[in-house]
Design brief:
Helix content: 40-55%
Structural class: alpha/beta
Distance between the termini: 37 Å
Strand content: 5-15%
């Protein structure tokens, strides 16, 4: 299995190359040359998430690693989860199940993709006798998951920009209490967009790297993160109904990686009815699926901050594969003037949306209402992101057939202010979260300017 860019110029890449490169040289996102197909009858006989991963992951890694070596990596990949099965389900009723993806060390679904990416980063660096820098900006969960996934690998130094703004104290402390010599949480006095612009420039200039050192992307553009997420969709289908009928998945999303992983699983053979694309007031995705309008707007801060985005990075993969039928020239043409000019695709192509996708945009008041509804009626406490997905199901319920799975992407304890405002009391907190509240913070306060950030990385990258 080789990989290529959605924009066509960067191609014939091995798994290891797309892992370490992240973004394609032509600005596009990497895709597999074809979709590997699963044997559903084989999957029905598996029992654990690790079993599923050992079957799915090698379908993408063969260009760089032998299967036996991949299995050894996977045996040690997912660690420090509070649940033996890694993933739990909660049945609301006969037609609705919540898939809990927050039992990992940072209490968010991103542990699945980032622990997989980090394990392969480390494997590659050991083989090549090289070192690497992880450089990223975070609005919450990505930064903590990246730091946790990489902290035990001495060949990797992590520099994560933490902007002023809309993340909870727990989310910040998950990054600032790690206190490892290879971890550098940077409190930057700017917005997330300011920090993201600095990261993008860093990847372009690479002025702070040593010679022959890798710069690693940990956001959801990295294909290996998508692979980790594909695995839990197959595991969910196994756990909920053993692939007996297609399921609906309601996915709270910002950068679209989680939705695309669901789509990818269906392309590989997972039975799928509908994907519900659930967003908050930052509604670029809802505007596309409802009105064929994919245009950038100003970001609004909400109580579901991981979804506060203006552009959904992974959406390009869907345009390329689903709408443009893998026509890289068409994909490249549509992104030539984006985001200064919005994307509107051919009407006939856009109407394909209804075959697989539904969408809904939920405001903060409706999110609070939904959190309270599930707490009062089902004794189930959910975080604001999960509530966005749950509210979308309630709103779209009359259009759905078959059973629906709501993805719960973060533990509610990460959002104490939202719980308080929804008049919800949470009695228990995951041990991994509880311990960080009383730990000393170690962080570096810098201005949100490329000079101060890049100089700091140079100083620490000795």
């Amino acid at each position: 299995m080789l990989f290529h860019s959605t924009r066509g110029k960067d191609k014939d890449k091995t798994f290891e190359e797309v892992l370490m490169q992240g973004l394609a040289n032509d600005g596009g996102l990497f895709m597999p040359d074809s979709w590997p197909q699963v044997d559903i009858d084989h999957l029905k006989n598996l029992s654990t998430f690790l079993d599923i991963a050992k079957y799915i992951v090698p379908m993408y890694t063969g260009s760089s690693f032998e299967n036996k070596d991949v299995e050894k990596v996977l045996e040690k990949t997912w660690h420090d989860f509070e649940k033996k099965e890694l993933i739990e389900t909660f049945d609301i009723d006969k037609s609705l199940t919540v898939l809990e993806l927050f039992h990992g060390p940072t209490a968010a679904f991103k542990d699945f993709g980032l622990q997989l990416a980090a394990a392969f980063f480390n494997k590659t660096l050991q083989v090549q006798n090289k070192t690497a820098i992880v450089f990223g900006a975070t609005s919450g969960d990505t930064g903590s998951a990246a730091i946790d996934a990489c902290k035990d690998f001495d060949l990797i130094k992590s520099f994560i920009l933490i902007p002023d703004g809309n993340m909870s104290e727990i989310q910040r402390k998950q990054m600032t209490t790690v206190n490892r010599p290879n971890v550098f949480p940077i409190l930057a006095n700017g917005t997330f967009d300011d920090c993201q612009d600095i990261v993008k420039k860093g990847f372009k200039e690479r002025s702070f790297l040593k010679e022959d050192q890798y710069l690693l992307a940990v956001n959801s553009i990295n294909w290996v993160r998508i692979i980790g997420q594909i695995c839990y969709y197959f595991f969910a289908s196994l756990k909920v109904n053993k692939f007996s009928e297609p399921l609906n998945f309601s996915v709270p999303t910002g950068n679209f990686g989680n939705v695309f992983a669901c789509y990818a699983a269906s392309k590989m053979g997972m039975p799928l009815s509908k994907i519900i694309v659930a967003v908050n007031n930052n509604d670029i995705l809802d505007r596309f699926f409802k009105n064929n309008d994919y245009s950038k707007a100003d970001v609004t801060e909400t109580i579901s901050p991981s979804m506060d985005i203006s552009v959904a990075s992974n959406f390009e993969r869907l345009l390329y594969d689903f709408y443009f039928n893998r026509n890289s020239q068409k994909c490249s043409d549509h992104y030539t003037d984006f985001p200064s000019k919005g994307i509107k695709i051919d009407e006939k192509m856009w109407k394909k949306s209804s075959e697989l996708f539904l969408s809904y945009s939920i405001n903060d008041d409706s999110t609070y209402e939904c959190m309270k509804h599930f707490c009062d009626n089902f004794n189930y406490i959910m975080d604001p992101h999960t509530a966005v997905a749950a509210k979308a199901v309630i709103k779209l319920n009359n259009t759905l057939s078959n059973k629906t799975v709501i993805l719960s992407t973060a533990h509610p304890a990460k959002f104490p202010i939202a719980l308080k405002n929804a008049e919800i009391n949470l009695d228990n907190m995951p041990k991994n979260l509880e311990k960080v509240l009383n730990m000393k913070e170690v962080e570096y306060k810098l201005s949100a300017s490329e000079d101060s950030i890049f100089d700091f990385i140079k100083e620490k990258n000795k």
